[in-house]
Design goal:
Blueprint (H helix, E strand, L loop, with lengths): L1 H11 L3 H15 L4 H26 L3 H28 L1 H8 L6 H7 L5 E8 L4 E6 L4 E6 L3 H16 L1 H6 L1 H20 L11 E5 L34 E4 L3 H11 L10 E5 L6 H4 L4 H9 L5 H12 L4 E3 L6 H7 L5 E5 L1 E3 L9 E3 L11 E3 H4 L8 E5 L7 E3 L3 E3 L1 H7 L4 E5 L5 H16 L4 H15 L7 H4 L2 E5 L8 H30 L1
Parallel strand pairs: 1-4, 4-5, 6-7, 6-8, 8-12, 12-15
Antiparallel strand pairs: 1-2, 2-3, 9-10, 10-11, 13-14, 15-16
Helix pairs in contact: 2-5, 3-4, 7-9, 13-17, 17-18
Length: about 525
């Protein structure tokens, strides 16, 4: 019983606001909250976020008078939203109860609904002076204290991220980078994972719930063995080779996403929308934008491989919708948002660690006077998306500042606020060439009807098999991780074939029975 109490405490420290938001979406459907009030709430939230963004822009342009004006407007909007919430509490208690209630984590329901006999969840809980992990299978839960501190973890995370994401260091000092990587990657396996191994017999699929800055790492780069000599990168024993791996901000959030996913069965055809960002700056268009947007736009270098990335998708999914050049703009995404099953965005991500809500995805600049072609985090959370999967084939879309009680504040989180149950995102600046290859493999396996985590794992393993030398470094294949539910998007071709075979056999059997019966009657 004390283990479940500890687990409740760990869950309460992670993504509770996001969880309440998703439960609030369900409460709006069944809690009797009128559409007019829902629209008012959404409008206030959008205006508050927009004003926050405008204040940042005004600060960058050193327009102090405008800043003060915007801050006053922001104060008024926040007060208006608070007044609306007071009204909702008084007039719609059923909605409030549904939204706030039920955030306690139900372990048995999680084990029954999310896990099977080949899947386990590993959740970390990091206190100031100690670190714990929970290992949850569909039958048991284990609670383990690890002999490390939060300070040690912080230091090691920085070390591992340096040897994973600093391309200049990796290329200029290959030998030292190799030694540092193999040493620290094995440290993580030994100190954070090996204690769970005795409880993972028969397990093939892992779901990790990281805590604090562990959310900045892909666990599939952990090294099961530290090489005695200098084995090539494509011959090292990565955790990737032992398990398929995915992630969630919390176990309760994964359960909530799974409930929503249960209403969406695999399809025969996907309504896929894909956008390839282009970054040829047109100065006349920039005059419409803020100074900060102009500076940002000018720093965005072309991504030549993204066109090829989408062309490969076109070969796999001929009935998809593909946007290149000027057509890959923000307006076209918003126009079709509600129709999308799978959204693929191959473009620059712009990270703002100081103001996470101002992080953005950079679409192609065009003549649009309504949209600025930077899709900000605060806009994403307000999108009316019905997508089963969003793939952010862009830089640092799963990375961001850690906030106590919520976790990593990334673009990925904004899509979860919009109700997307599954994402593929990146943890550092990606190489567009290796990204294109991994994405091609990922979608190929999705088309075969494989679950998302297995599809991404197989794509990474395929990449490792075909690359040698520094090209096999985890910097090139490991930045992408899968968040959320892993259910297959498409029916397996074999299952459809068996339906045809079964139907044909049944038809033959019925025909034989009719003929035989007719023959008996004639006799």
């Amino acid at each position: 019983e004390y283990i479940e109490t500890a687990l409740q405490a760990a869950e309460k420290s992670k993504s509770i606001i996001l969880l309440e938001s998703l439960k609030g979406n369900a409460a709006k459907k069944f809690g009797g909250l009128p559409d007019s009030i829902q629209k008012k709430e959404a409008s206030f939230k959008e205006q508050i976020a927009s004003l926050g963004k405008q204040i940042i822009d005004a600060k960058g342009a050193q327009e102090n008078e405008l800043q003060e004006k915007l801050k006053n407007q922001l104060f008024d909007q926040k007060r208006a939203l608070e007044n609306l919430y007071e009204r909702i509490k008084a007039e719609f208690p059923k909605y409030v109860q549904m939204k706030k209630g039920g955030t306690d984590f139900n372990l048995q329901e999680f084990q029954d609904e999310v896990l099977d006999n080949k899947t386990a969840l590993i959740e970390y809980f990091i206190a100031d002076s100690s670190c714990f992990l929970f290992v949850i299978t569909n039958e048991k839960i284990e609670f383990i204290k690890l002999p490390i501190t939060s300070k040690m973890i912080e230091q090691k995370v920085k070390q591992l991220r340096t040897v994973l994401s600093n391309y200049k260091y990796i290329l200029q000092d290959e030998k030292r980078a190799y030694q540092r990587y193999t040493k620290v990657a094995h440290w993580f396996y030994k100190e954070l994972f090996v204690a769970a191994v005795p409880y993972l017999k028969g397990i093939e699929h892992l779901v990790f719930v990281p805590d604090r800055t562990l959310g900045h790492l892909p666990f599939d780069v952990f090294l099961v063995e530290q090489p005695s000599g200098e084995l090539p990168y494509n011959q090292l024993h990565y955790l990737l080779q032992d398990y398929s791996i995915r992630y969630s901000y919390s176990a309760a959030l994964l359960l909530e996403n799974k409930k929503g996913q249960a209403k969406r069965s695999p399809k025969e055809v996907l309504n896929l929308y894909a956008f390839a960002g282009s970054y040829d700056v047109v100065d006349s268009n920039l005059l419409r934008r803020t100074l900060l947007q102009q500076r940002t736009r000018k720093q965005l270098i072309p991504l030549p491989a993204v066109v090829g990335e989408l062309k490969q998708l076109e070969k796999l999914f001929e009935k998809g919708h593909y946007y290149y050049g000027a057509a890959a703009n923000e307006f076209n995404l918003k126009k079709h948002a509600a129709e999308i099953d799978v959204l693929h965005l191959a473009m620059h991500g712009v990270l703002n660690t100081n103001y996470p809500f101002a992080s953005s995805l950079a679409f192609t600049e065009n003549q649009d006077s309504i949209e600025d072609n930077f899709l900000y985090a605060y806009e994403i959370s307000q999108l009316k998306l019905n997508a089963n999967l969003v793939v952010l084939s862009a830089c640092e879309t799963g990375y961001g500042r850690f906030e106590q009680g919520e976790g990593v504040m990334s673009l990925a989180r904004s899509f979860m606020y919009a109700g997307v149950p599954s994402l593929v995102v990146s943890l550092w600046q990606v190489n567009d060439g290796s990204t294109a290859l991994i994405m091609q493999g990922f979608y190929t396996y999705l088309k075969e009807g494989l679950p998302k985590d297995i599809a991404l794992r197989k794509a990474k393993l395929d990449y490792l098999k075909t690359r040698t030398g520094i090209a096999a470094h985890p910097a090139y294949w490991a930045p992408f991780i899968q968040l959320g539910t892993a259910d297959a998007l498409l029916e397996k071709p074999t299952s459809k074939l068996w339906w045809w075979i079964g139907g044909f056999a049944l038809l033959v059997g019925i025909s034989f029975f009719i003929i035989k019966r007719k023959g008996n009657n004639e006799v």
